[in-house]
Design a protein that fits this description.
CATH topology of the largest domain: Molybdenum Cofactor Biosythetic Enzyme, Chain A
Number of strands: 27
Pathway: Cofactor biosynthesis; molybdopterin biosynthesis
CATH superfamily of the largest domain: MoaB/Mog-like domain
Keywords: Magnesium, Metal-binding, Molybdenum, Molybdenum cofactor biosynthesis, Transferase
Number of helices: 7
Family: Belongs to the MoeA family.
Pfam family, one: MoCF_biosynth
Helix content: 10-25%
GO molecular function, one term: metal ion binding
Bound molecules: adenosine monophosphate, magnesium ion
Length: about 400
């Protein structure tokens, strides 16, 4: 349902963390030119023939070549050029004598070691030959990928862009943090949490907005931002009660683009899915734990897939439960958990806090979600279960 956006060409900095939408063919060789691998002296190897500490060879130093010197030099037989690491090797030189094997002279140099042809010269193209495909479509843009692109002179890369997500919280009881609470009000926590989860999944947040339980107000938020988004996520207003603004806005029988369903999971049973003017919308339940677990189960993998990112699913680890638990019949239960991989060998897991969908504190300090299959009602200590690694 969530589709990849067309590829875009962006600056290297913007490309970080995305995946390449094209192969990259080197237009340049690396190294670009033959250059010195050492600080030392460029020589003709045969001019150092027989040099030893007891019988050194002395050569006049005709040039000084720091890195970045751009004029083209030629080494005359029987002379040396002082040269620094990364500087171009002059025509006619066949080896570099490291400064450590010399007296470091400036006018003339005393060389105490014989040097083989080719020593300490980094050859043009030995890393990358121009015309080689060095990076592949689908490859994640990591720091070394950016380094290679820059070394090849590229200022931009073509990537699959980030998904743009609109996050809307609903509820007339909600107050933005930082403002005083009146009786019956609570602080709004889903939009900041879901927006952070979107960014953590690699997406960008077009806007976060809060609407009261009022269809017109909710509709106004959609009208204002929906066109900029590739995905709309709402929280709240999809349960079985009255004043369910999201259900009311789209109609409860699925005839206005959004279908409301009950999913056999806990937390996160009431869900909705559909489109608003062509843009996918997923309507999550309002309880904060339900909202975040639903995001983990349904949206994080889908967003990452649409961006072509690696590891769309959280890593699943098999771990031994160190307590006995019960789980509701017919529902796949995700319990906040502490996964312990420190013991070496077998990972263990213990649930963390009650399964209730409003206990946010435990989720904040859990490092895993314990995945209890829907046909399981009792799990005894020592059972192996799957844990989603959130760390
Ligand atoms: P709802 O799904 O709208 O019936 O909300 C279920 C529960 O989650 C209620 O206790 C709401 O107050 C709470 N809730 C809904 N949205 C939010 C939110 N954005 N931040 C914090 N709590 C919320
Ligand atoms: Mg509500």
């Amino acid at each position: 349902m969530i589709r990849a956006r067309p590829a875009v060409t962006v600056s290297l900095t913007e490309a970080q963390g995305l995946v390449l939408a094209d192969d990259v063919v080197a237009r340049l060789s690396l190294p670009v030119f033959d250059n010195s691998a050492m600080d030392g002296y460029a020589v003709r190897a045969e001019d150092t023939s027989g040099a030893t500490p007891e019988h050194p060879v002395v050569l006049p130093v005709a040039e000084d070549i720091p890195a970045g010197r751009t004029d083209e030099l030629t080494l005359r037989p029987g002379t040396a050029h002082r040269i620094m690491t990364g500087a171009p090797v002059p025509a006619g030189a066949t080896a570099i004598v490291p400064v450590e094997a010399t007296d470091g002279g400036v006018q003339s140099v005393t060389i105490r070691q014989h040097c083989e042809p080719g020593r300490h010269i980094r050859r043009a193209g030995e890393d990358v030959a121009a015309g080689t495909t060095v990076l592949r479509n689908g490859q994640p843009v990591t720091p070394p990928v950016l380094g290679l692109a820059s070394a090849l002179g590229l200022a931009e890369l073509t990537v699959i862009p980030r998904q743009r997500v609109l996050v809307i919280s609903t509820g007339s009881e909600l107050v933005a943090p930082g403002h005083p609470l009146r009786p019956g009000q609570i602080y709004e926590s889903n939009s900041i949490m879901l927006a952070a989860a979107v960014r953590d999944a690699g997406g960008i947040v077009v806007a976060t907005a809060t609407a009261g339980d009022d269809v017109a107000e909710f509709g106004a938020v959609l009208d204002r931002y929906a066109a900029e988004a590739d995905l709309i996520i709402t929280s709240g207003g999809v349960s079985a009660g009255a004043y369910e603004v999201v259900k009311d806005a789209f109609g409860r029988d699925g005839d206005r683009g959004v279908e409301f369903v009950k999913v056999a999971m806990q937390p996160g049973m009431p869900q909705g899915i559909g489109r608003v003017a062509g843009t996918p919308i997923v309507t999550l339940p309002g309880n904060p734990v339900s909202a975040l677990v639903s995001f983990e189960v349904f949206l994080r993998p889908a967003l990452r897939r649409a961006m072509g990112l690696p590891n769309p699913e959280r890593p699943h680890r098999a771990a031994i439960l160190t307590e006995s638990l019960t789980s509701p019949r017919g529902k796949r239960q995700f319990r906040r958990a502490i996964l312990d991989s420190s013991k070496g060998g077998v990972d263990t897991v213990i649930s963390y806090g009650p399964p209730a969908s409003h206990h946010l504190r435990w989720l904040a300090s859990a490092n895993g979600l314990l995945d209890i299959p829907e046909d399981v009602e009792q799990v005894s200590a020592g059972t192996q279960l799957q844990v989603w690694d959130l760390s």
